[in-house]
UniProtKB/TrEMBL annotation:
Source organism per UniProt: Shewanella salipaludis
Subunit record text: Component of the cbb3-type cytochrome c oxidase.
Name under which the protein is recorded: Cbb3-type cytochrome c oxidase subunit
GO biological process: proton transmembrane transport
Lineage of origin: Bacteria, Pseudomonadati, Pseudomonadota, Gammaproteobacteria, Alteromonadales
NCBIfam families (alphabetical): ccoP (TIGR00782)
Cofactor entry: heme c
Location in the cell: Cell inner membrane
Length: 318
């Protein structure tokens, strides 16, 4: 915040508080010329108005509120750029990475500054840390049978994973469905945990990086359509198979059923990450695809990832 706006906010806030105090003092004095408790000389709808003073409890309440406001503004950052006597802040502002966030937390602790978010995280770690430690010490094969652990994993999933995979984990275009049996890198417990911990970087270059002419793409598309058993032009598909054998098989396999070591999808099961229409398949071949799942080990830590992995596995293994 610039100095101008800092001064403007500070002065305006203090003027408002001072104005409230002055108004309260004026309302506490009898300036009507009529003795307190006597009639003001007029009535409304048959109700006579009396010159009654403000109730004491009402006045005291406002005095207390004003004093509280001044104390609050002195202790906490409420006046422009003023930091407050307690050195309190809601969070570490301006951080753009996990490393910067950790450094800011360490700096605040060293300087004795009270950062509310850091304190809440510390409280949560102290309270729930032992629970996650117990879950982490449990083999995944056993953890998937623990209903309470799966509920915790489900909440962690909603907080961190649902933005891409959906609250029902069924994904969307470009984001895998986690509730079926189709896995790019494998759906066993260990692989799921590895995927969450380290993230995944999938990349198919345009035309697979192969010497495939634009004129070959319609036939190659027809061949890929035929792999999943859909209606197709057999003669055109046979031409496309020759294009596929130029090198597509290196990633997708001779049977086009994919390669989990590379994250190459199965083209023969009619499950499509980006869509399986002829137009979208052609688009994928021409332009390629790139998908990134971030690594969560430095964000959530292995203990929480352990629980999420059990939950994700349970979605497709009831």
């Amino acid at each position: 915040m610039t100095s101008f706006w800092s001064i403007w906010i500070s002065v305006l806030s203090l003027i408002v508080i001072a104005g409230c105090l002055i108004l309260l003092r004026l309302c506490s004095k009898n300036t009507t010329g009529v003795e307190e408790g006597k009639s003001m000389g007029h009535s409304f709808d048959g109700i006579e108005e009396l010159n009654n003073p403000l109730p004491k409890w009402w006045s005291y309440m406002f005095y207390i509120t004003i004093v509280f406001g001044l104390i609050y503004l002195a202790l906490y950052p409420g006046l422009g750029n003023y930091k407050g006597l307690l050195g309190w802040s809601s969070s570490n502002q301006g951080v753009v990475s996990i490393a910067e966030s950790k450094a800011a937390t360490e700096s605040a602790t060293k300087d004795g500054r009270w950062v509310q978010y850091d304190q809440e995280v510390k409280h949560a770690n102290d309270k729930f840390g032992p629970i996650f430690a117990a879950y982490a010490a449990t083999p995944l094969e056993e953890l998937v049978k623990n209903e309470e652990a799966l509920k915790v994993g489900g909440r962690l999933f909603l907080q961190n994973c649902a933005q891409c995979h959906g609250s029902d984990a069924r994904g969307s275009k470009g984001f895998p469905n986690l509730t079926d049996s189709d896995w790019l890198y494998g759906g066993d417990l260990a692989t799921i945990k590895t995927s969450i911990m380290n993230g995944r970087h999938g990349m198919m270059p345009p035309k697979g990086g192969l010497p495939i002419a634009d004129s070959e793409i319609p036939a190659l598309t027809e061949y890929i359509v035929s792999l999943s058993g859909r209606e197709h032009d057999a003669a055109k598909a046979a031409q496309g198979q020759a294009s596929f054998m130029k090198g597509c098989f290196a990633c997708h396999g001779m049977d086009a059923k994919g390669n989990k070591f590379m994250g190459a999808p199965n083209l023969a099961d009619n499950i499509w990450l980006y869509g399986g229409s002829r137009g979208i398949i052609e688009e994928t071949i021409i332009h390629g695809r790139g998908g990134v799942m971030p690594a969560w080990k430095n964000v959530l830590g292995e203990e929480k990832v352990h629980v999420i992995a059990a939950y994700v596995y349970s979605l497709s293994n009831k």
